Predict the structure.
Amino acid sequence: MDLPYQYINNLKQEIDEIPPDSIISRTLSSELGVKTILFGFSPGQELSEHTAAVPAILYFLEGEARLELGKDKKTAQPGTWVQMPPKLPHSIFAETKVIMLLVMLESK
């Protein structure tokens, strides 16, 4: 019996073009307690401070961004990985074009 799976050869290619002054998102999967969303930010775009009700992981594939994680200020570039607990205030500001994978985990 073959088990179903999802295969994406290159995540960055899943975001074709990001219109100026925009943030786009594409849900890749939402099942078994895990939701994965691919985001594309044009330069200068921002997700203002917010929280998530569940644990989350940010993985940056392309570009440079400023992050606020609680009271800490960090930078992100390709390869940056952030694991966040539920309810951590955070924000993202794209210095350049940014492609980021968000993984949200069901809290038990």
In short: Strands lie at 23-31, 34-41, 46-50, 56-62, 65-69, 72-76, 81-84, 90-94, 98-105. Residues 74 and 91 are 10 Å apart (CA to CA). The two ends are 30 Å apart (CA to CA). The mean pLDDT is 94.
